[in-house]
Amino acid sequence: MRFNQVIVFLMVIAALSAFVMPPGINAFRKFDSLLAPVSYPARKVAQALHARTGGSTARPTPGEERSGDVSVEQLRYENKNLLIRVNELTEQNQKLLELLNQVKGFALPMDSLMLAPVISGDPGNEQVLTVQVHSTDGLTPNMPVLSSQGQLVGKLQIVGIGATRVRLVTDKASTITCGFQRYRKDDASFVMLPQAPKAVQGKGADGRMIAAAMKHDEVKPKNHPEQELEPGDWVVVKDRDLPAEVQGRKIGEIEAIETSRNALFYNIVIRPDSDLMKLRDVMIVVKK
Amino acid sequence: MRWLPFFILAYIVLGVQSGLSGYDQVYRGRPNLVLLAALFVAVHAQRDAALLAAFMLGLMQDLLTDSPLGLNAFAYGAIAALVVNVQEVVYRDHVLTHVSLGLVCGLIYAAIVYVHGLIYHWAHAGRSSWARPSLLPLLAGAVYTAALAPVVLYVLQRFRRVFGFRAVRMMHGMRR
User: For labelling, which of A8, A29, A32, B155 has a CA lying 20 to 30 Å from the CA of B58?
Assistant: First the structure.
């Protein structure tokens, strides 16, 4: 057989595999960790350059962008967030101390978080991160993954020593059901908005998400102007397919409310607090 | 062509491409360094080796992504098949050659991936967890790749001897 025929044969096989083969064949795709000796240093260099040029993974909130300045209200808002976070961490710390006292010398219980550094991302345009895990015991696909701020950033997609991938909530193939929450400035509290949970889908390379085709009455309820959705409202997880530990966790804030092609509907554009593709570490919620 | 340096190149390029993910985006487009490596090999190597090398680069990239297996292998193979035919008529060390080839190959790659996305989602509607790529990031990626082509190809040209490419005239002379 001539070489030309071999190449044509390979190309036909590749084309058949790419165009015709049914989806879901991931058995051979667990080699990401092999590239870690190159991808991890490259990522570290990129992170260092990004930090040196004044870049940050955190994004300004829609309110900050509008004003261009930090007001007392925004500082109060941030302070409230930090207080909530401190309370959460204090509670977690207390719980961990209690558990440590209980088990004395035994391994930690499974209901904990597994910290995993990000070693690389998708070579193409997909919003997928590869993380390094020291053990895959107890890890299964679709386990939720949190950022270090405790926000839901995605779900495990592939699990293995060779590759453990996280599909981010901003990926086009990611859909999570979410509700809406608002921060009240007057009494510094959070209130759950009455809108029914909606499917939030990633927008891909854009790094944002969208809750598409929301009815006019949902976005702007009649006779209840205080319940209208607004930029800055939090979007929180309300997904029955995810464990209780992540319910109510923030995935982003409403950035814009756009009218869809059909004027009766609205598209809610949601932005995570940070650029998820630039995360350095993530936490996998091991307990299911 | 020597295959060991080629595999080292493939390893480094795929590692850098994966590692920079999230940090190298401009207007939602990413440069395709693997395509530039395939282009470098296709411009310099003997026809058979160039086609096989480009195909293998694509296959290796396929193993690292969630796109349907064979998509990148097919795309790079097709691009290499076009590029090897212009080996003799282009000035391979010129910066304009690098930019134009980078742009043309980037656009061909974008077209293949986009059309594939349309067909694949039509054929596997509702069953696929892989999302169809948008056109704009692909086009932005093609332009970005073309902009980086002179730099990347210049660096690779410095190591040309390592790969043991034979001169095109010599190759054709031998074939005849």
Answer: B155
Q: Read off the pTM.
A: 0.81
d(C-alpha A14, C-alpha B142), whole Å: 22
How many angstroms away from the CA of B72 is the closest CA of chain A?
Answer: 9
Helix, strand, coil % in chain A, rounded to nearest 5: 30, 30, 40
Per residue in A205-223, pLDDT tens? 788 999 888 888 888 888 8
Residue B102's pLDDT is what?
95
pLDDT band per the 50, 70, 90 thresholds, residue A109: very low
Query: Does B68 contact A18 at a Cβ distance shorter than 8 Å?
Result: yes
Residue B117 Cα distances to A221, A241, B128, B133, angstroms: 38, 28, 11, 6
Number of CB pairs, chain A paired with chain B, less than 8 A apart: 178
CA distance B162 to B155: 13
Question: How far apart are the C-alpha atoms of A108 and B74, rounded to whole Å?
Answer: 48
- Backbone phi and psi for residue A125, each to the nearest 5 degrees, phi listed first: -105, 10
Could you report the per-residue pLDDT of A77-90, keeping only the tens digit for each?
778 778 888 888 88
Which amino acid is residue A58, in one-letter code? A
Nearest to B128 among A23, A129, A205 (CB): A23
N-term to C-term CA, chain A: 54
Of residues B39, B18, B11, the one with CA closest to residue B99: B39
Judged against a pLDDT cut of 50, whether residue A108 lies above it is answered with no
Q: Is B18–A121 a contact, with Cβ atoms under 8 angstroms apart?
A: yes
Which residues on chain B are in Cβ contact (under 8 Å) with A171?
131
**Alpha-carbon distance B108 to nearest alpha carbon in chain A (angstroms):** 15
Which residues make Cβ contacts (< 8 Å) with residue A157, sequence separation at least 6?
A128, A141, A165, A166, A167, B66
Name the minimum distance, in Å, from the CA of B92 to any CA of chain A. 24
Q: Residue A230: how many CA atoms within 13 Å on its side-chain side?
A: 10
**ipTM of the complex model:** 0.86
Q: Is B70 an interface residue toward A (CB < 8 Å)?
A: yes
Q: Which residue has the tokens 């092999």?
A: A34
Compute the mean pLDDT over every residue in chain A, rounded to the nearest whole number: 82
